[in-house]
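Hi support team,

I've been running sequence recovery on a batch of backbones for a student project. Most finish fine, but this one hangs at about 90% for roughly twenty minutes before it completes. I'm not sure whether the input is malformed or the queue is just slow. I've pasted the structure tokens below so you can try to reproduce it. Let me know if you need the job ID as well.

Thanks,
M.K.
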């Protein structure tokens, strides 16, 4: 089989296609959870903490270029200017995003596993001869030979 034929067989296998679909759906699902975090949950957290916007929380580690004209509180502008920043607020937002995504996936897996029909137990195999019966058979066979 040629290299192209082997590649075609590999791509068309079911598990590769399932994986591709899973990655695409996962990327779209990630965007939904990111929106849930950034657009719904973080504003509520910000409201309960007195208007703190976590994504704007950072510590400047490097020197700010003399040519920089933007705000000293604008994380995105400082980062774009090449200033070394310790962006702990963005990290907190990403951790919350991860925990939420993991929790939502956990709930989905639980729901799907409950909705899936339970596989029926295979009927028990008929019981074979006991160990004593087998030993008696061997004994009888040996006696018959002698």
């Amino acid at each position: 089989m040629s290299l192209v034929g082997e590649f075609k067989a590999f791509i068309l296998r079911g598990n590769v296609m399932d994986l591709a679909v899973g990655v695409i759906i996962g990327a779209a699902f990630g965007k939904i959870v990111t929106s849930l975090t950034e657009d719904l949950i973080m504003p509520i957290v910000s409201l309960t903490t007195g208007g703190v916007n976590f994504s704007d929380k950072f510590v400047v580690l490097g020197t700010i270029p003399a040519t920089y004209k933007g705000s000293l509180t604008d994380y995105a502008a400082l980062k774009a200017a090449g200033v070394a920043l310790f962006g702990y607020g963005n990290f907190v937002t990403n951790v919350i995003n991860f925990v939420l995504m993991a929790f939502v996936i956990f709930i989905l897996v639980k729901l799907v596993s409950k909705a899936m029909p339970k596989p029926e137990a295979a009927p028990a195999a008929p019981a074979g001869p006991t160990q004593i019966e087998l030993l008696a058979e061997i004994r009888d066979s040996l006696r018959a030979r002698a």
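--
Follow-up from support: It reproduced on our side and the slowdown came from queue contention, not your input. The mean pLDDT is 84. No action needed from you.
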